[in-house]
Amino acid sequence: MSTTTQGAAAGAGVMIAVDIGASSGRVIIGRLPDATSGAEPGQLAMEVVHRFPNGVSEVDGSLHWDAEGIFAEVTAGLKAAAAVVRETGERVLSIGIDTWAVDYGLLDADGRLVGPPHAYRDSRTDATIDRVHAAISPERLYAVGGMQFLPFNTVYQLAAEQDLAGQRALLIPDLLAYWLTGVERTEETNASTTALFDAREVAWSAEVFDAVGVPQLFAELIAPGQAYGTLRTEVAAATGLAADVQVVAVGSHDTASAVAAVPAADAHFAYVSSGTWSLVGLELEEPVLSEASRAANFTNERGVDGTIRYLQNVGGLWLLQESMRDWAEQGRERELTDLLAAAAELDAGPVVDANAAEFIAPGQMAGRIRAAVERAGDTLPAAPGEADALGAASGVDPDQAATVRCIMDSLAAGYAASLAAAAELSGQRPQVVHIVGGGSQNTLLCQLTADATGLPVLAGPVEATAQGNLLVQARAAGLISGGLAELRRAVAADLVRYQPRA
């Protein structure tokens, strides 16, 4: 994948992707070069113009997102993009936004943010889950929306609110789009993750809202490729962008954008969108709303072009990220490459349920993993702080190597179990597994996934989410035509293949 494009044609149209995850965000210019640009025609090229950190903070004992701070960073990124296109003589056609799912901001009657949005890792929903299930059974909730049970689903978050009178709600990407355009809409791939959505009707479910006893606070639905509107005058002035630049809905749930950019040639493929979370599943034409599917805790989320992302959330590289943060705080910080190399030297060891609720919250992750292994009657082979020849060169202690190996084996085992169940429940059996996102660079994880699933793994692109975002915008602007197959052919990626070992 190219990260820059030289010799852009004067007046050429470009798109801007705002891609925000739980730990960082980026603003990216996307181009579809023609034969005169020096790049491969028809293959998407990207240029990152702004990066910024993101994360939750504790406010009055609860975990929150700094939504207004995020928007300030988005504005700074758009200003940087405007400066780039002034130099190249290009024209910005549109902006698309993707973020994580389920979280929302509440607006008052004047359209002002009531307070910083709660973060999904906050524990406030613990007391509401039983109350929601008493009002509408888990079986009925699934039959309507097809959402897997997660304690932070939007339905439980709204039930935890104290007073919603006179308020409106926007999911995080829609909130950012509202601040850019002044238009309130809810993009449907993200709406489908709320457990307040009717999977068959592709509409908000009055039945669920009524049963839970909360008002329907969300705006009219919008599909990927449709426009929210153009920039507000003050946003155009602050960024230097033209006021006629459109903000276009993309797969605003970042996984929807990532799956849209899976470079799949085989119609029967599985995917793992691997980042802070791992989203593991299949692409289907219709939701699977059976009781067996609910019992297996699969989710039916909408994708681009009305597809269904039939998947499970598997606790992802969050376990590794948090363990590394623990070690850094203890003065035992190590390079990721050294940790993975040391882990690869070890034999497969004990595994944990990477999706267990005990791993959702931040802090002391390495200790929690060790405790989970011990509760299962197993042990990691070294105590924290021990040193031996394995770690002498790299500085990696054996307990660090063993913990990382446990995480990698646990993720691969989780992927394999999820894909086997997805195939059984849907009747669609994949021939290949595509790993996209940050985890596609983790050679140990990719090889262990091939081993665990017994299927070849194709790794890449790393930037699938941003590419899917930009390609939906490009199609909306008329720069590319066709369905998902045509979009995927424009994905630029050097794929790495991993064959399953005996």
From TrEMBL:
- Give an example GO cellular component term for this record: cytosol
Pfam families on file: FGGY_C (PF02782), FGGY_N (PF00370)
Q: Where is the Carbohydrate kinase FGGY N-terminal domain?
A: 14-259
Q: Which InterPro entries match?
A: ATPase_NBD (IPR043129), FGGY_C (IPR018485), FGGY_N (IPR018484), Rhamnulokinase (IPR013449)
| One term of GO molecular function | rhamnulokinase activity
Instruction: State the family it belongs to.
Output: Belongs to the FGGY kinase family.
Q: What is this protein called?
A: Rhamnulokinase
